Amino acid sequence: MSYEVLARKWRPQSFADVVGQQHVVTTLQNQISTGRVGHAYLFWGPRGTGKTTIARVLAKAVNCTTNEEINNPEPCNRCVNCQEISSGRSFDVREMDAASNRGIDTIRELKENAQLVPASCRFKIYIIDEAHMLSLEAFNALLKTLEEPPAHVIFILATTEHHKVPPAIVSRCQGFDFRFMEQELVTQRLKEICKTESIEISEEGLALISHQSEGCLRDATNILERLTASIGRNLSVEAINQILGLGAAQLIENLSQKILEGNVASSIQQLANLSKVGA
Question: Model-level pTM greater than 0.90?
Answer without folding.
Answer: no
